[in-house]
TrEMBL record:
It comes from the Bacteria. Residues 1-11 have a biased composition (Low complexity). InterPro entries: AhpC/TSA, Thioredoxin-like_sf, Thioredoxin_CS, Thioredoxin_domain, Thioredoxin_ResA/DsbE_sf. PROSITE patterns: THIOREDOXIN_1 (PS00194), THIOREDOXIN_2 (PS51352). Residues 1-20, 44-73 are annotated as: Disordered. Coiled coil: none annotated. SUPFAM superfamilies: Thioredoxin-like. This is Thiol-disulfide isomerase or thioredoxin. Residues 50-210 form the Thioredoxin domain. GO terms for molecular function: antioxidant activity; isomerase activity; oxidoreductase activity. Residues 1-39 form the signal peptide. Gene3D superfamilies: Glutaredoxin. Keywords: Isomerase, Signal. It comes from Micromonospora echinaurantiaca.
Length: 210
């Protein structure tokens, strides 16, 4: 019978038993020696735990969080933000990532003159409040090439711009015309839906951030 682990001092070979023991006594002796050797072994979490501050690789290849970790619970996702989409660049986008903050959704079309007049304000305001009141464009009613050209012309690449050519988000929020702003508060409730000029947009976003 073989023990599962054994502690050996560096530079020394394990001592051999002076004589072979057989029968029930050998089984009992092996069990006792195995338990003693394992009890004095290294931390089962291994060096990875010490290097990562209390985390270690899990059997599935991820990490097991330390009970003393500082990460807090994620904000609950309201129904209004329970959607997924793609940006005009093709990246995956999840509305759930916006949960816990006020959010402004801007529904625009690339051929819309009113949208063009508002685009400069969005390009100026959105980066300033990116972390506190995200502004997300939802492009529809047009071709993707025209939408991308609109984003380039009005320097909107610094804010998420969703490709909603199929109209899924327009229907979800019951938007029937451009340009429409949908403002969602921290709890997920829609507190405004409709037109906003540049001054009104700036004022509302600043108030939400405060």
């Amino acid at each position: 019978m073989r023990t599962l682990c054994r502690s050996v001092r560096p530079g020394r070979s394990p001592r051999r038993t002076p004589r072979r023991v057989s029968g029930p006594l050998a089984v009992l002796l092996a069990a006792v020696l195995g338990a003693t050797a394992c009890a004095g072994g290294a931390d089962p979490a291994g060096p990875a735990a010490a290097a990562t501050g209390g985390t270690a690789p899990s059997p599935t290849g991820g990490t097991v969080a330390s009970p003393t970790g500082s990460a807090g619970p994620a904000a609950p996702v309201p129904d209004t933000l329970a959607f997924t989409a793609r940006t005009l660049d093709g990246a995956a986008f999840s509305g759930a990532a916006l949960a816990g903050r006020p959010v402004v959704l801007w529904f625009w079309a690339p051929w819309c003159a009113t949208c063009a007049s508002q685009a400069w304000t969005v390009a100026e305001v959105a980066p300033k409040y990116r972390d506190t009141v995200p502004i997300v464009g939802v492009a529809g009613l047009g071709e993707q090439r025209a939408m991308k050209d609109f984003v380039t012309e009005f320097e909107l690449a610094g804010t998420p711009q969703l490709d909603d050519r199929a109209g899924a988000l327009w229907r979800r929020f019951e938007v029937v015309e451009q340009s429409t702003f949908v403002i969602i508060d921290r709890s997920g409730a829609v507190v405004h839906q409709g037109f906003l000029d540049g001054e009104d947009l700036t004022r509302r976003v600043a108030a939400l951030a405060g």
